[in-house]
Write a structure and sequence with these properties.
single chain, mainly alpha, two-stranded antiparallel ribbon, ATP synthase subunit K, mitochondrial, mitochondrion, transmembrane helix, ATP19
Length: 73
């Protein structure tokens, strides 16, 4: 069986293949992701306050990591 499309006879299997290809193409286009820019990484602590504050935070984090590593070993 065939259909007449734009004055030409088109077999049903070609119409089916064209439909599957169109759906696959549209799906691939939709799944490729957005063009939004990715989030920027967090900046260093130096932009937030004084040198003393930065040193305090770094020491606090280092001590917390030491305590945490002692608990796991």
């Amino acid at each position: 069986m065939s259909y007449v499309v734009a004055g030409r006879k088109i077999a049903t299997e070609y119409l089916a293949l064209a439909t599957i290809g169109a759906i696959g193409g549209i799906t691939a286009f939709q799944m490729r992701g957005s063009s939004k820019p990715k989030a920027k990484p967090i900046q260093e602590l130096s932009a937030t306050g004084s040198k003393e504050e930065e040193d305090f935070i770094r020491n606090f984090v280092a001590e917390a990591e030491k305590e945490d590593s002692k608990k796991h070993h």
